[in-house]
């Protein structure tokens, strides 16, 4: 519709005719904000101020129905999407970002409502209701934008289908490897159990004949010292006694290992002077090996509550180790001093070949021997293991500080 330009000249105070009806001055336009809000919400469904859209402008049937049907089609799709999302959310409660999906549903639903009202306005010009729905759509849209932006880092970290498939393959491979490892572990455990059983039986069976042979050799040694005719045999008998002593020591170690593995290593604790016990042990070693000298440092009045026989065994094992691996340096130092938590710390220091750092963690394992030294020094790798188990059963700790080529300090607390 063409507006008459002459009307603008003749009626300067009148409103311009819009969409085919003259506008009248509205006192609500001059009201304050609170008045405008009240008027807006109390007349939310009032359509007196506007004509239907069919009567606003020049619409052909094709143009108008294209607009209307497009809006209705969009509305139908936008209403269907939230219901589909609702079904997805209700069926798949494990999906990530459920709040985001609800926001999308609300946003799409309100967009559809806007298109629905846009089509209805062709007959029912509810512009106030349309504005309110658009405002709600804007609010939900902005909230969705912020929620989506906040979730971006987590979304970017979501794995793709290919990544998930690769992970599943890796997991299956790991499970298969774990299964094979468990089978091998079980086989190794069974083998170890059989070995422990064999060691236990063999050590018990060997103890009696070894003891008998040792007794016979000792009698023969005494006879060789008395009888002139047997004097030539004395060095050989003495050597045989020493070898049987070594064998007896190995048998006793095997018996101790068997007791440790079965949890039958018993302790008989008494209170005794630690310095006296260490001196007795050192005197035995001075007699057996006059090539090494032993120096003892520390408080001579320290007393401990422990199994004296087993603690003597620990000291002897550590001294044996110190003597064996320091053939070129004769001094071995034993020091004892009070430690934290009312314990005593005993250190045995040699100046021998030392132990590489990467191998020091395994030095207390059963049957472990440092590969570089096993061909030069005798032993079965039980002394340090037994010593560590005795210390641990006393509630103490054991360790070693070593520098290759400079020596080692074995220590334990009791």
Automatic annotation (TrEMBL):
Task: Please verify whether the record's keywords include Cytoplasm.
Answer: no
Query: What residues form the membrane-spanning segments?
Result: 64-89, 101-125, 131-149
Pfam families under this entry?
A: ETR1_N, HATPase_c, HisKA
What's the EC number here?
2.7.13.3
Q: Which reaction does it catalyse?
A: ATP + protein L-histidine = ADP + protein N-phospho-L-histidine
Q: Which GO terms describe its molecular function?
A: phosphorelay sensor kinase activity
**What InterPro entries does this protein map onto?**
ETR1_N (IPR058544), HATPase_C_sf (IPR036890), HATPase_dom (IPR003594), His_kinase_dom (IPR005467), HisK_dim/P_dom (IPR003661), HisK_dim/P_sf (IPR036097), Sensor_HK_Regulatory (IPR050736), Sig_transdc_His_kin-like_C (IPR004358)
CDD domains the record matches: HATPase, HisKA
Q: Which UniProt keywords apply?
A: Kinase, Membrane, Phosphoprotein, Transferase, Transmembrane, Transmembrane helix, Two-component regulatory system
In what residue span(s) does the Histidine kinase domain sit? 201-414
Protein's recorded name: histidine kinase
This chain's source organism reads: Pararcticibacter amylolyticus
């Amino acid at each position: 519709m063409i507006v008459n330009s002459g009307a603008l000249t003749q009626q300067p105070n009148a409103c311009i005719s819009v969409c085919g009806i003259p506008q009248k001055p509205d006192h609500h336009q001059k009201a304050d904000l609170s008045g405008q809000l009240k008027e807006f919400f109390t007349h939310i469904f009032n359509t007196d101020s506007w004509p239907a859209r069919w009567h606003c402008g020049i619409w052909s049937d094709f143009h108008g129905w294209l607009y209307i049907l497009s809006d209705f089609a969009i509305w139908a799709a936008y209403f269907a999407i939230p219901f589909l999302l609702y079904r997805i959310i209700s069926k798949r409660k494990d999906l990530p970002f459920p709040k985001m999906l609800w926001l999308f549903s609300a946003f799409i639903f309100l967009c559809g409502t806007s298109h629905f009202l846009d089509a209805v306005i062709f007959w029912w010009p509810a512009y106030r209701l349309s504005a309110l729905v658009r405002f709600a759509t804007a609010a939900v849209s902005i909230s969705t934008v912020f929620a989506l932006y906040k979730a971006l880092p987590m979304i970017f970290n979501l794995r793709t289908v290919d990544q998930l498939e690769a992970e599943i393959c890796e997991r299956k491979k790991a499970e298969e490897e774990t299964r094979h490892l468990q089978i091998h572990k079980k086989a190794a455990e069974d083998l170890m159990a059989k070995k422990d059983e064999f060691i236990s039986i063999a050590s018990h069976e060997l103890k009696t004949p070894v003891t008998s042979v040792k007794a016979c050799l000792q009698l023969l040694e005494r006879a060789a010292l008395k009888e002139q005719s047997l004097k030539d045999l004395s060095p050989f008998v003495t050597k045989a006694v020493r070898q049987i002593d070594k064998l007896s020591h190995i048998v006793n170690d095997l018996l101790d290992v068997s007791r440790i593995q079965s949890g039958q290593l018993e302790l008989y604790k008494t209170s005794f002077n630690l310095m006296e016990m260490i001196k007795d042990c050192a005197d035995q070693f001075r007699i057996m090996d006059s090539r090494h000298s032993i120096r003892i440092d520390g408080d001579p009045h320290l007393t401990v509550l422990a199994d004296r026989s087993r603690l003597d065994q620990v000291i002897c094992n550590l001294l044996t180790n110190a003597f064996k691996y320091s053939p070129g340096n004769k001094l071995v130092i034993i020091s004892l001093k009070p430690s934290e938590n009312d314990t005593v710390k005993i250190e045995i220091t040699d100046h021998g070949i030392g132990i590489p750092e990467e191998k020091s963690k395994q030095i207390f394992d059963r049957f472990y021997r440092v590969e570089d030294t096993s061909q030069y020094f005798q032993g079965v790798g039980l002394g340090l293991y037994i010593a560590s188990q005795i210390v641990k059963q006393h509630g103490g700790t054991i360790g070693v500080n070593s520098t290759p080529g400079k020596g080692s300090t074995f220590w334990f607390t009791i």
